[in-house]
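May I ask for a single protein's sequence together with how it folds?
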Amino acid sequence: MGKRKDRKGVKRIPVKGFVVSSPDGESNHSHKLYITSWDGRPVHVHPFAGTTSFDVGHDHQYAGMTEPAPSGVPHVHAYYAHTSFDDGHSHIIKGTTGPAIDLPGGGHVHHFEGYTTVNGRTPHTHMYRGTTGSEDSFL
């Protein structure tokens, strides 16, 4: 599978996947797109988890999976997660990982870091940083 150009000369990249819709009975009908391959390459995700910095007398836990990215090419991943509910509130972490770091036995990981959203009785943020787990095939 190669890249093709459409009638206007724009390069087109073949993408495969599937769409899942919420049940029709829900008031907020929505769809989620799951991409399974990009330009003929399977996509993959990474688990991530950690603990935020200790600020204003507490910290938070977080865990999630990165968004999919193509395998076998230079790439980064977007990530998003809600922290644990501690001291009466939670935060959101989101961002983009660094580039892939190859592992000696195969596979790769990514570094990530940033600051949470502002929240709490005393408005504050927490710093977080970590390294994803090795990649998992999306499907």
Remarks:
- The chain has one domain: 40-137.
- Residues 63 and 103 are 22 Å apart (CA to CA).
